[in-house]
Write a structure and sequence with these properties.
This protein has about 300 residues and is α/β, with parallel strands linked by helices. The protein contains 9 helices and 8 strands. Helix content is about 45%, strand content about 15%. Helix 1 crosses helix 2. About 25% of the residues are buried.
């Protein structure tokens, strides 16, 4: 079976191979979650719900949107699991961050009639190669048809950092999503990549041409080949370690895998190794065999 990759999976490998091993090779659950990720999830789910109501022509008031957010926040906030890393900040600060994000978005886009929603939290799956040996997937926050006819791939960000335009023009995640969206809605459709930086009430955008997307495909294929060939997963200390949900397991911080997970981890490793070997063999074979005639596909 061909492995399915995602931008998150690729980024995890690039940032820390030990975390990649914990999550994707051993299949271990995270023992905690950073509060920033928690707030991001709560904001995303409320915005999805908001647009569902808009689609039914039942536009809620801002007060109702905030009330739903607070209810979700309280229902799912587990102080034993949610980790606040930044000193001097507390639960109330992060609750207010989510309120600010939603309020900014609501006031900017009310009454939500500037575009047409094509998809909410929509999963896209696509091949990077003709033989189907390199498969990617992702979930797009919102896909819309803008007033000028372009399709927009929209992504919500709740953090305070806003990348430079040059960074956005090199962003891999939404560019990969463009490949999948274009396959579904038509390669000839004009597509924009749009980021909503909710905390700062700022919208940024970028575009990709076919040549740039082809380079991206080849770069990601090369990275997947590297992942498939990797057998050692050393820890890599970096600025993200304090937010890592596997820090308690990590040998770089004196951690170890809980005994309750040992048997599962061993079995998972064997299965993953076999699957990776098979995928690598298949990929090698695919590179050396002639392309399959179109008449034989499907």
């Amino acid at each position: 079976m061909t492995e399915i990759y995602s931008h998150s999976r690729l980024s995890t490998f690039e940032n820390c191979r030990k975390k990649f091993e914990f999550r994707y090779v051993l299949g271990l659950p995270e023992d905690s979650e950073g509060v920033e990720a928690f707030v991001g999830k709560r904001v995303h789910e409320v915005l999805e719900r908001l647009y569902e109501f808009v689609g039914r022509q039942q536009l809620p008031k801002l007060e109702q949107v905030i009330s739903r957010y607070n209810a979700n926040f309280d229902a799912q906030y587990d102080p034993e699991r949610i980790r606040i890393v930044k000193s001097g900040l507390d639960k109330d600060f992060y609750r207010a961050l989510g309120v600010r994000c939603l309020s900014n978005f609501y006031r900017r886009h009310y009454p939500f009639d500037a575009d047409e929603t094509l998809g909410l939290e929509q999963r896209v799956s696509f091949n990077l190669d003709e033989s189907g040996e390199y498969v990617m997937q992702g979930i797009v926050d919102r896909i819309v048809r803008a007033r000028d006819g372009a399709i927009e791939i929209q992504d919500y960000k709740t953090g305070s950092w806003i990348p430079t335009q040059s960074k956005l023009d090199q962003d891999r995640q939404l560019a990969l999503y463009q490949i999948g969206v274009a396959a579904e809605y038509g390669a000839g459709e004009p597509i924009r990549l749009v980021w909503h930086y909710l905390a700062k009430d700022k919208i940024c955008s970028s575009t990709r041409n076919p040549e740039e997307l082809e380079v991206l495909k080849q770069d990601v294929i090369g990275l997947i080949d590297e992942i498939r060939a990797t057998r050692e997963f050393p820890a890599k200390k970096n600025a993200l370690c304090n937010w890592c949900g596997y820090k308690g397991y990590c040998p770089a911080f004196g951690g170890q895998i809980p005994a309750s997970h040992d048997a599962t981890a061993t079995a998972t490793t064997a299965t993953t190794t076999a699957a990776t070997t098979a995928a690598t063999t298949a990929a090698t074979t695919a590179k050396t065999r002639p392309p399959t005639p179109a008449s034989e596909l499907g």
